[in-house]
Design brief:
401 residues, alpha+beta, Aminopeptidase, Nonspecific Lipid-transfer Protein, Chain A, 13-stranded mixed sheet
Protein backbone atom coordinates (compact mmCIF):
# COMPACT_ATOMS: atom_id res chain seq x y z
CA UNK A 1 0.00 0.00 0.00
CA UNK A 2 1.20 3.50 -0.89
CA UNK A 3 -0.13 6.90 0.14
CA UNK A 4 0.69 9.69 -2.30
CA UNK A 5 -0.44 13.08 -3.49
CA UNK A 6 -3.23 12.89 -6.06
CA UNK A 7 -2.57 13.67 -9.71
CA UNK A 8 -4.95 14.84 -12.42
CA UNK A 9 -5.01 11.26 -13.72
CA UNK A 10 -6.78 10.17 -10.51
CA UNK A 11 -9.95 12.16 -11.22
CA UNK A 12 -12.14 9.33 -12.52
CA UNK A 13 -11.56 6.95 -9.62
CA UNK A 14 -11.65 9.68 -6.95
CA UNK A 15 -14.89 11.07 -8.40
CA UNK A 16 -16.34 7.55 -8.41
CA UNK A 17 -15.35 6.96 -4.77
CA UNK A 18 -16.69 10.34 -3.68
CA UNK A 19 -19.98 9.69 -5.45
CA UNK A 20 -20.29 6.21 -3.96
CA UNK A 21 -19.47 7.30 -0.41
CA UNK A 22 -21.41 10.58 -0.34
CA UNK A 23 -24.45 9.49 -2.32
CA UNK A 24 -24.34 11.32 -5.63
CA UNK A 25 -24.01 10.13 -9.21
CA UNK A 26 -20.41 10.47 -10.45
CA UNK A 27 -21.81 11.38 -13.87
CA UNK A 28 -24.02 14.19 -12.55
CA UNK A 29 -22.24 17.56 -12.91
CA UNK A 30 -19.11 15.67 -13.92
CA UNK A 31 -17.61 18.65 -15.72
CA UNK A 32 -17.98 20.74 -12.55
CA UNK A 33 -16.44 17.99 -10.39
CA UNK A 34 -13.51 17.71 -12.79
CA UNK A 35 -12.88 21.45 -12.76
CA UNK A 36 -13.01 21.39 -8.96
CA UNK A 37 -10.58 18.46 -8.82
CA UNK A 38 -8.16 20.26 -11.13
CA UNK A 39 -8.21 23.18 -8.70
CA UNK A 40 -7.77 21.12 -5.51
CA UNK A 41 -5.95 17.89 -6.41
CA UNK A 42 -2.66 19.05 -4.86
CA UNK A 43 -4.46 19.07 -1.48
CA UNK A 44 -5.66 15.48 -1.95
CA UNK A 45 -3.94 12.22 -1.02
CA UNK A 46 -4.69 8.79 -2.45
CA UNK A 47 -4.32 5.33 -0.96
CA UNK A 48 -3.08 3.10 -3.76
CA UNK A 49 -2.97 -0.68 -3.63
CA UNK A 50 -1.96 -2.92 -6.54
CA UNK A 51 -2.00 0.11 -8.86
CA UNK A 52 -5.60 0.92 -7.88
CA UNK A 53 -6.78 3.89 -5.82
CA UNK A 54 -8.85 2.51 -2.93
CA UNK A 55 -9.18 5.63 -0.77
CA UNK A 56 -8.66 9.37 -0.70
CA UNK A 57 -8.76 12.42 1.57
CA UNK A 58 -8.18 16.13 1.31
CA UNK A 59 -6.23 18.39 3.68
CA UNK A 60 -7.16 22.05 3.15
CA UNK A 61 -4.77 24.73 4.48
CA UNK A 62 -6.46 27.41 6.55
CA UNK A 63 -5.63 29.91 9.25
CA UNK A 64 -7.89 29.52 12.28
CA UNK A 65 -8.73 32.11 14.91
CA UNK A 66 -7.91 30.53 18.28
CA UNK A 67 -8.87 32.96 21.05
CA UNK A 68 -7.87 35.88 18.83
CA UNK A 69 -4.55 34.36 17.71
CA UNK A 70 -4.11 33.03 14.16
CA UNK A 71 -2.92 29.44 13.83
CA UNK A 72 -2.21 27.38 10.72
CA UNK A 73 -4.89 24.69 10.48
CA UNK A 74 -5.44 21.59 8.36
CA UNK A 75 -9.06 20.93 7.43
CA UNK A 76 -9.58 17.21 6.79
CA UNK A 77 -12.28 16.61 4.19
CA UNK A 78 -13.78 14.07 1.79
CA UNK A 79 -12.31 10.99 3.47
CA UNK A 80 -13.42 8.01 1.37
CA UNK A 81 -12.67 4.31 1.08
CA UNK A 82 -13.80 1.67 -1.37
CA UNK A 83 -16.28 -0.53 0.54
CA UNK A 84 -14.55 -3.79 -0.34
CA UNK A 85 -11.38 -2.78 1.53
CA UNK A 86 -12.87 -1.12 4.61
CA UNK A 87 -11.98 -2.12 8.19
CA UNK A 88 -8.46 -3.08 7.18
CA UNK A 89 -6.69 -0.07 8.68
CA UNK A 90 -6.26 1.84 5.42
CA UNK A 91 -7.89 5.06 6.64
CA UNK A 92 -5.97 4.75 9.89
CA UNK A 93 -2.73 4.78 7.90
CA UNK A 94 -4.00 7.73 5.87
CA UNK A 95 -4.77 9.71 9.04
CA UNK A 96 -1.28 9.03 10.42
CA UNK A 97 0.15 10.16 7.09
CA UNK A 98 -1.89 13.38 7.27
CA UNK A 99 -0.77 14.07 10.86
CA UNK A 100 2.84 13.91 9.69
CA UNK A 101 2.07 15.99 6.59
CA UNK A 102 0.35 18.69 8.66
CA UNK A 103 3.24 18.77 11.13
CA UNK A 104 5.75 19.16 8.29
CA UNK A 105 3.60 22.00 6.92
CA UNK A 106 3.72 23.80 10.30
CA UNK A 107 -0.01 23.34 10.90
CA UNK A 108 -0.58 23.58 14.64
CA UNK A 109 -4.21 22.45 14.70
CA UNK A 110 -6.70 20.43 12.65
CA UNK A 111 -10.46 20.47 12.24
CA UNK A 112 -12.92 18.15 10.52
CA UNK A 113 -16.58 17.23 10.19
CA UNK A 114 -16.82 13.54 11.14
CA UNK A 115 -18.71 10.78 9.40
CA UNK A 116 -18.44 9.01 12.77
CA UNK A 117 -17.27 10.82 15.88
CA UNK A 118 -15.97 7.72 17.66
CA UNK A 119 -13.64 6.96 14.76
CA UNK A 120 -11.96 10.35 14.87
CA UNK A 121 -11.99 10.59 18.66
CA UNK A 122 -9.82 7.46 18.63
CA UNK A 123 -7.22 9.65 16.87
CA UNK A 124 -7.38 12.40 19.49
CA UNK A 125 -10.01 14.67 17.95
CA UNK A 126 -12.51 16.22 20.37
CA UNK A 127 -16.16 16.95 19.56
CA UNK A 128 -17.14 20.60 19.46
CA UNK A 129 -20.47 22.34 18.92
CA UNK A 130 -22.70 21.64 15.95
CA UNK A 131 -23.79 24.42 13.67
CA UNK A 132 -27.28 25.61 14.58
CA UNK A 133 -29.89 27.25 12.35
CA UNK A 134 -33.23 28.76 13.30
CA UNK A 135 -36.28 28.69 11.04
CA UNK A 136 -38.02 32.08 10.87
CA UNK A 137 -41.02 33.43 8.98
CA UNK A 138 -39.81 36.63 7.27
CA UNK A 139 -42.92 38.44 8.57
CA UNK A 140 -41.31 38.23 12.01
CA UNK A 141 -38.74 40.79 10.83
CA UNK A 142 -41.46 43.44 10.47
CA UNK A 143 -39.85 45.63 13.15
CA UNK A 144 -37.18 46.35 10.52
CA UNK A 145 -39.50 47.29 7.65
CA UNK A 146 -37.59 50.58 7.23
CA UNK A 147 -33.91 50.89 6.43
CA UNK A 148 -31.57 52.62 8.89
CA UNK A 149 -30.67 56.13 7.73
CA UNK A 150 -28.08 56.16 4.96
CA UNK A 151 -27.94 52.38 4.55
CA UNK A 152 -28.65 50.33 1.43
CA UNK A 153 -28.48 46.70 0.35
CA UNK A 154 -27.67 45.26 -3.06
CA UNK A 155 -28.04 41.75 -4.47
CA UNK A 156 -25.26 40.22 -6.56
CA UNK A 157 -24.54 36.87 -8.21
CA UNK A 158 -21.80 35.22 -6.15
CA UNK A 159 -18.96 35.97 -8.56
CA UNK A 160 -19.93 39.64 -8.96
CA UNK A 161 -20.17 40.33 -5.24
CA UNK A 162 -17.17 38.26 -4.18
CA UNK A 163 -14.81 41.16 -3.48
CA UNK A 164 -17.35 42.72 -1.10
CA UNK A 165 -17.80 39.33 0.59
CA UNK A 166 -14.03 38.93 1.02
CA UNK A 167 -13.72 42.40 2.53
CA UNK A 168 -16.46 41.79 5.11
CA UNK A 169 -15.37 38.24 5.91
CA UNK A 170 -11.77 39.28 6.60
CA UNK A 171 -12.95 41.87 9.13
CA UNK A 172 -15.70 39.78 10.75
CA UNK A 173 -13.57 36.68 11.23
CA UNK A 174 -11.11 38.63 13.38
CA UNK A 175 -13.66 38.51 16.21
CA UNK A 176 -14.82 34.89 15.79
CA UNK A 177 -13.06 32.25 17.90
CA UNK A 178 -12.88 29.09 15.79
CA UNK A 179 -13.47 30.91 12.52
CA UNK A 180 -11.12 30.47 9.58
CA UNK A 181 -9.37 32.89 7.27
CA UNK A 182 -9.54 31.86 3.61
CA UNK A 183 -6.64 31.83 1.19
CA UNK A 184 -7.01 33.19 -2.33
CA UNK A 185 -6.94 29.57 -3.50
CA UNK A 186 -9.98 28.85 -1.32
CA UNK A 187 -11.92 31.89 -2.55
CA UNK A 188 -11.21 30.90 -6.14
CA UNK A 189 -12.50 27.41 -5.38
CA UNK A 190 -15.83 28.96 -4.39
CA UNK A 191 -16.04 30.59 -7.82
CA UNK A 192 -16.18 27.07 -9.26
CA UNK A 193 -18.70 25.53 -6.87
CA UNK A 194 -20.96 28.27 -5.50
CA UNK A 195 -23.84 29.73 -7.47
CA UNK A 196 -25.58 31.43 -4.54
CA UNK A 197 -26.80 35.00 -4.20
CA UNK A 198 -24.98 37.59 -2.13
CA UNK A 199 -26.84 40.47 -0.48
CA UNK A 200 -24.36 43.15 0.60
CA UNK A 201 -25.05 45.98 3.06
CA UNK A 202 -23.51 49.41 2.42
CA UNK A 203 -23.34 52.27 4.90
CA UNK A 204 -23.80 55.97 4.12
CA UNK A 205 -20.18 56.14 2.94
CA UNK A 206 -20.77 53.24 0.51
CA UNK A 207 -18.56 50.94 2.59
CA UNK A 208 -19.62 47.27 2.89
CA UNK A 209 -20.72 46.36 6.44
CA UNK A 210 -22.63 43.09 6.13
CA UNK A 211 -23.36 40.18 3.82
CA UNK A 212 -25.51 37.10 3.51
CA UNK A 213 -24.83 34.25 1.12
CA UNK A 214 -28.09 32.46 0.35
CA UNK A 215 -30.32 30.48 -1.98
CA UNK A 216 -33.97 31.26 -2.63
CA UNK A 217 -36.33 28.49 -3.74
CA UNK A 218 -40.06 28.04 -4.26
CA UNK A 219 -42.98 30.37 -3.73
CA UNK A 220 -45.53 30.77 -0.93
CA UNK A 221 -47.15 27.56 0.22
CA UNK A 222 -49.75 25.06 -1.01
CA UNK A 223 -49.19 25.85 -4.67
CA UNK A 224 -49.17 22.65 -6.75
CA UNK A 225 -46.73 24.15 -9.25
CA UNK A 226 -44.05 25.26 -6.77
CA UNK A 227 -42.31 23.98 -3.68
CA UNK A 228 -42.72 25.99 -0.50
CA UNK A 229 -40.89 29.32 -0.57
CA UNK A 230 -37.67 29.27 1.43
CA UNK A 231 -34.46 31.23 1.80
CA UNK A 232 -31.53 29.19 3.10
CA UNK A 233 -28.65 31.35 4.32
CA UNK A 234 -25.28 29.65 4.06
CA UNK A 235 -23.23 32.42 5.71
CA UNK A 236 -24.01 35.76 7.34
CA UNK A 237 -21.62 38.36 8.73
CA UNK A 238 -22.36 41.83 10.05
CA UNK A 239 -19.88 44.40 11.30
CA UNK A 240 -22.44 46.72 12.96
CA UNK A 241 -25.97 46.52 14.42
CA UNK A 242 -27.12 48.74 11.55
CA UNK A 243 -25.88 46.15 9.06
CA UNK A 244 -27.85 43.45 10.87
CA UNK A 245 -30.92 45.71 10.84
CA UNK A 246 -30.48 46.14 7.07
CA UNK A 247 -30.22 42.40 6.42
CA UNK A 248 -33.36 41.75 8.45
CA UNK A 249 -35.10 44.50 6.46
CA UNK A 250 -34.06 42.73 3.26
CA UNK A 251 -35.43 39.40 4.49
CA UNK A 252 -38.71 41.07 5.52
CA UNK A 253 -39.13 42.28 1.93
CA UNK A 254 -39.49 38.61 0.93
CA UNK A 255 -42.53 38.07 3.19
CA UNK A 256 -44.98 37.79 0.27
CA UNK A 257 -42.72 35.37 -1.58
CA UNK A 258 -41.41 32.92 0.99
CA UNK A 259 -42.52 31.36 4.28
CA UNK A 260 -39.23 30.27 5.79
CA UNK A 261 -35.80 31.76 6.38
CA UNK A 262 -33.13 29.34 7.60
CA UNK A 263 -30.72 31.56 9.54
CA UNK A 264 -27.40 30.33 11.03
CA UNK A 265 -26.97 31.28 14.68
CA UNK A 266 -23.58 32.83 15.40
CA UNK A 267 -22.80 32.63 19.15
CA UNK A 268 -20.57 35.68 18.76
CA UNK A 269 -23.65 37.80 17.96
CA UNK A 270 -26.67 38.47 20.16
CA UNK A 271 -29.57 36.03 19.84
CA UNK A 272 -31.96 36.74 16.95
CA UNK A 273 -34.96 36.39 19.28
CA UNK A 274 -35.07 40.01 20.56
CA UNK A 275 -34.94 41.20 16.96
CA UNK A 276 -38.18 39.39 16.07
CA UNK A 277 -41.89 40.07 16.61
CA UNK A 278 -44.87 37.68 16.74
CA UNK A 279 -42.35 35.09 17.81
CA UNK A 280 -43.11 32.58 20.56
CA UNK A 281 -41.45 29.31 19.64
CA UNK A 282 -38.69 28.45 17.23
CA UNK A 283 -37.71 25.48 15.13
CA UNK A 284 -34.01 24.81 15.51
CA UNK A 285 -31.98 22.67 13.15
CA UNK A 286 -28.52 21.38 13.94
CA UNK A 287 -25.86 20.43 11.45
CA UNK A 288 -22.97 18.04 11.81
CA UNK A 289 -20.61 18.60 14.72
CA UNK A 290 -17.10 19.98 14.31
CA UNK A 291 -14.12 18.09 15.76
CA UNK A 292 -10.80 19.70 16.69
CA UNK A 293 -7.29 18.48 17.45
CA UNK A 294 -3.93 19.94 18.34
CA UNK A 295 -1.30 18.74 15.86
CA UNK A 296 1.68 20.57 17.36
CA UNK A 297 1.58 21.60 21.02
CA UNK A 298 4.20 24.30 20.88
CA UNK A 299 2.93 26.19 17.83
CA UNK A 300 -0.74 25.86 18.79
CA UNK A 301 -0.29 27.41 22.25
CA UNK A 302 2.43 29.92 21.44
CA UNK A 303 1.36 33.56 21.97
CA UNK A 304 -2.24 32.81 22.96
CA UNK A 305 -3.68 35.80 24.85
CA UNK A 306 -4.01 35.33 28.62
CA UNK A 307 -5.03 37.50 31.55
CA UNK A 308 -2.93 35.97 34.34
CA UNK A 309 0.82 35.63 34.72
CA UNK A 310 2.17 32.33 35.98
CA UNK A 311 4.19 29.28 35.08
CA UNK A 312 3.79 25.51 35.03
CA UNK A 313 5.21 22.44 33.30
CA UNK A 314 2.95 19.92 31.59
CA UNK A 315 3.70 16.40 30.42
CA UNK A 316 1.68 15.80 27.24
CA UNK A 317 0.43 12.36 26.23
CA UNK A 318 -0.29 11.92 22.50
CA UNK A 319 -0.67 8.42 21.08
CA UNK A 320 -0.31 9.45 17.43
CA UNK A 321 1.95 12.51 17.18
CA UNK A 322 5.24 11.54 18.87
CA UNK A 323 6.65 15.07 18.62
CA UNK A 324 4.04 16.08 21.24
CA UNK A 325 5.08 13.46 23.81
CA UNK A 326 7.27 15.92 25.65
CA UNK A 327 7.36 18.18 28.65
CA UNK A 328 6.49 21.79 27.94
CA UNK A 329 6.91 24.85 30.10
CA UNK A 330 3.95 27.22 29.85
CA UNK A 331 4.68 30.73 31.04
CA UNK A 332 2.26 33.64 31.09
CA UNK A 333 3.99 36.96 30.59
CA UNK A 334 2.94 40.33 29.15
CA UNK A 335 -0.56 39.00 28.45
CA UNK A 336 0.75 36.18 26.23
CA UNK A 337 1.41 32.50 26.73
CA UNK A 338 4.96 31.42 25.95
CA UNK A 339 5.71 27.74 25.34
CA UNK A 340 9.09 26.01 25.38
CA UNK A 341 10.38 22.45 25.49
CA UNK A 342 12.03 21.38 28.72
CA UNK A 343 13.96 18.25 29.64
CA UNK A 344 13.80 15.97 32.68
CA UNK A 345 11.45 18.10 34.75
CA UNK A 346 9.43 14.98 35.65
CA UNK A 347 6.27 17.01 35.95
CA UNK A 348 3.46 15.28 37.80
CA UNK A 349 0.94 17.28 35.74
CA UNK A 350 -0.04 15.01 32.86
CA UNK A 351 -2.54 16.01 30.20
CA UNK A 352 -3.68 14.09 27.13
CA UNK A 353 -3.82 15.71 23.72
CA UNK A 354 -7.62 15.53 23.99
CA UNK A 355 -7.52 17.44 27.26
CA UNK A 356 -5.18 20.11 25.95
CA UNK A 357 -7.25 20.50 22.78
CA UNK A 358 -10.39 20.92 24.89
CA UNK A 359 -8.77 23.70 26.92
CA UNK A 360 -7.31 25.58 23.96
CA UNK A 361 -10.58 25.51 22.00
CA UNK A 362 -12.64 26.36 25.10
CA UNK A 363 -14.72 23.18 24.89
CA UNK A 364 -14.30 21.87 28.45
CA UNK A 365 -13.32 23.24 31.84
CA UNK A 366 -10.39 21.98 33.89
CA UNK A 367 -12.86 20.22 36.19
CA UNK A 368 -14.45 18.54 33.16
CA UNK A 369 -11.06 17.17 32.12
CA UNK A 370 -10.73 15.32 35.41
CA UNK A 371 -14.09 13.67 34.83
CA UNK A 372 -12.89 12.56 31.37
CA UNK A 373 -9.60 11.42 32.96
CA UNK A 374 -7.72 13.62 30.52
CA UNK A 375 -5.64 15.35 33.21
CA UNK A 376 -3.99 14.19 36.43
CA UNK A 377 -1.45 15.28 39.01
CA UNK A 378 -3.05 18.71 39.20
CA UNK A 379 -2.41 20.91 42.23
CA UNK A 380 -4.91 23.46 43.48
CA UNK A 381 -2.83 26.39 42.21
CA UNK A 382 -2.30 24.74 38.81
CA UNK A 383 -6.04 24.12 38.49
CA UNK A 384 -6.73 27.80 39.17
CA UNK A 385 -4.07 28.99 36.72
CA UNK A 386 -5.26 26.74 33.88
CA UNK A 387 -8.85 27.85 34.46
CA UNK A 388 -7.75 31.48 34.21
CA UNK A 389 -5.70 30.85 31.08
CA UNK A 390 -8.36 28.79 29.27
CA UNK A 391 -11.90 29.92 30.18
CA UNK A 392 -14.78 28.25 28.37
CA UNK A 393 -15.32 29.87 24.98
CA UNK A 394 -17.55 28.35 22.31
CA UNK A 395 -15.81 28.08 18.93
CA UNK A 396 -17.85 28.75 15.80
CA UNK A 397 -17.02 27.72 12.26
CA UNK A 398 -19.21 28.01 9.17
CA UNK A 399 -16.62 26.75 6.72
CA UNK A 400 -18.10 23.86 4.75
CA UNK A 401 -15.60 21.23 3.62
Amino acid sequence: MEIRQATLADFEIVNELNGYCYGYSPEANKELHQKHFEHTHKEQYCIEQNNTVIGNARCIPFEQNIRGCWKKMGGIAMVVSAPEVRRRGNIRQLMLFLFKKMHESKMGVSTLYPFKDTFYSSFGYVSGPATVQVEINPKQFKRWRKLPHGYSIERFPFNEGLNFFKNIHEKAIQEIHGGVRRSEQRWNEFLITRKDWLAVVFNASSEPEGVIQYQSKGFGSNFPWAEEGKIAIRENYTLTPEARHTIYHYLFLHADQINKVILPINPNYSSPNPWLQDFYTSSLQTGVIVMDRIIDVQSSLQDLPIEKEGQLVINVIDNFCPWNNREFELKGKNSQLKVSLVEAQNSSLEITIEGLTSLVYGLLSVNDLQTFQWIKGLSKSQRKLLAQWFPLKEPWMMEAF
